[in-house]
Amino acid sequence: MITFSTNFGDITIELDMNTTPVTAKNFLKYCQDGFYQGTIFHRVIKGFMIQGGGFTAKMKEKPTRAPIVNEANKGLSNVIGTIAMARTDAPHSASAQFFINVANNDFLDHLATTNDGWGYCVFGKVTAGMEVVTQIEKVKTAMVAGHEDVPFDPIVIENVTIHSES
């Protein structure tokens, strides 16, 4: 379990280490390294998702490790409350950015091993703080530094806590 303490409240996530081990371990490593501390939710689309994990409050992109293999073909679905990896149009380009689904977005699921069909890898779910996610989803957004849907006021991940398994 991982808790993101944001300026809006806490969001706790449970990783699916069994179904998507490469993705979950990659995300956990970024958490352990302190990478997400000070990053923002930089893309918020009401009725779709909230995305974070790549930019500072000044919209400066953080350098990441190499991209990982896309595990979207493992059968997990982009439903409300799940966390998935963000990526470019290239299927195996995810590194650090993630999004939390605020709707059932099954059109993002794996359909085929083609560029268009790969989908977006779900690797966990929100177990506490969905009300914080919903609050973030409702913020006012604008175009900032060439990016659309950026919250008008920064939504900052202030601290990341990794809870040991008991």
From TrEMBL:
Pfam families: Pro_isomerase (PF00160). The keyword Isomerase applies. It catalyses: [protein]-peptidylproline (omega=180) = [protein]-peptidylproline (omega=0). Keywords: Cytoplasm, Isomerase, Rotamase. One of its GO terms (molecular function) is peptidyl-prolyl cis-trans isomerase activity. The keyword Membrane does not apply. Its EC number is 5.2.1.8. Residues 1-162 form the PPIase cyclophilin-type domain. One of its GO terms (biological process) is protein folding. It comes from the Bacteria. It is found in: Cytoplasm. InterPro entries: Cyclophilin-like_dom_sf, Cyclophilin-type_PPIase, Cyclophilin-type_PPIase_CS, Cyclophilin-type_PPIase_dom, E_coli_cyclophilin_A-like. GO terms for cellular component: cytoplasm. PPIases accelerate the folding of proteins. It catalyzes the cis-trans isomerization of proline imidic peptide bonds in oligopeptides. Belongs to the cyclophilin-type PPIase family. This is Peptidyl-prolyl cis-trans isomerase.
